[in-house]
Each structure stands twice: as structure tokens, then as C-alpha cells.
Amino acid sequence: MDNVYTWGPPIWKTSLDDHIIQRLLNDGEKIRNSEDYNAEKWLAMNTHDEWYYPRKVVDWFSSEIKIKVIEYMKIWADHLDIKVNPERFKLECNSNEMKYQIDSLWVNYMQKHDCNPLHDHSGNVSFIVYLNDVPDLKTEKQRMNMTNNGPIPGSVMFCHNDNRKFFFPNKGEIFLFPSNTLHMVIPYKSDLTRISVSGNILFPTNPYH
Fold first, then answer.
1. Global pTM value
2. Which of 19, 31, 90, 92 could form a Cys-Cys staple with 37, CB 3.0–4.6 A?
3. Are 5 and 113 within 8 A, CB to CB?
């Protein structure tokens, strides 16, 4: 189900087709544990299991999500009440000619006790894609007798000023948001792996002028 959240930065939660999720899973396993693709020292997450996809996968994924990127830019324009050039916006969006690039794409295998601290990204628009379901996290607090009223372990948190929003994602969902939006993942204690993919989108020119 698609949802737009505009309490601060425009955050769009939507979903990707199964074939996209499956290829990201398959290609992630191909590069996992290959030092040529190790992303650990470049990323904020405190883990030893993050890997950059090769350029051919980045280019394929960029093409697959073009329609999503176009739709998100329309959502962002509406949110900001931006006065756009109608002809240019029609050319770049409605005719699928919007120019952008994904500068990098990486897969995260998050384990128990791993921490993805509060951080932002480079670029203009960022995204997180979730490749598997982890239903045990929904019951972790009850199973481990935790009495706090905090968010579900494994939730993603977005921050804007003093406001925070938490989302517990499911397989196939993608979140798109401005790259400077602070966000983090709540650690968990269950013995399982959550697999996600992140990346940043760059626009060579402002699509709104």
C-alpha cells in the first residue's frame, strides 16, 4: 500500500515488484564476502556485512525504479508547493525523460546487536528497500520481557526537528525521502538477519526550474 507522510520531509512508502526484490537478493549473495565490494568503511552502520553492488546492477535498478522516482518528485513538488515550469516538468516527468543517476547502491545484512545510528546521506533523494520479512521482531519485546514503550525493534526512524516517526517495514517496500533527512534503524536482539538495500539519487539539474 502506498502512503505519503508529510509531517516534515516528504517520505513516500510504496512497493516494488517481486522480480526486482528477487534479483537484488540474488545479486547481493553473489557479492557478499567479496572484498572488492566491501562497503563497511564508507557507511555509518556498525556492522561487517555491507556490500556495494557493481555498476551493471546499479544501472539496471536505476531503470527499474524510474517511474517511482518520477512519482516521488511530483509528491515532493506538491509538498513544497513549488511553482514549476509546466512544459519542462511535463517533458522530464510525464514523458519519462527525467535525468538522474544513482551514485551507489549497497546491500545491508543487519544482525542482532548491529547498530545503524542516526545519519543522513549524500545526493538529492535517498531510498531504502526491504528484501525480506522478519516477523519475529514484532514480538521481540514480549518474548524478551522488555517493558519499555519504545518502537518495535528493527523499525526505521525518520527525524525532523524534534519530531520522530517510526515505521516497521515489510518485504518489498521502498521508502523514498530527501537525502538530508536524518534516520536510523532501531537495534534488535533476535537471532536473525534483516536484508535491506540503500542508495542515493543525484539530479544534474534542478527538475523544478
1. 0.89
2. 31
3. no
